[in-house]
Amino acid sequence: MDFSGLSIAVGDAVIKYGAFIQAVVDFLIIAFVIFMALKALNTMKKQEPPAAPPPPPPQEVLLTEIRDLLKKGR
Q: Helix or strand or coil: residue 24?
């Protein structure tokens, strides 16, 4: 669809608003195509599995053992 021919005459002046509408439509079409291409690239990217949580520090392991021994002793 070509909007570039649309215009309105006000006295001796001619306002060509169709060129603006055509530029907006062209921009929206190009932006949509780029958006869909990037979306497709992101979905094709291989998803990395989540990393395993790091082991607790030795102090925390010792404190856990002490806590368990105290619970068992009661």
A: helix
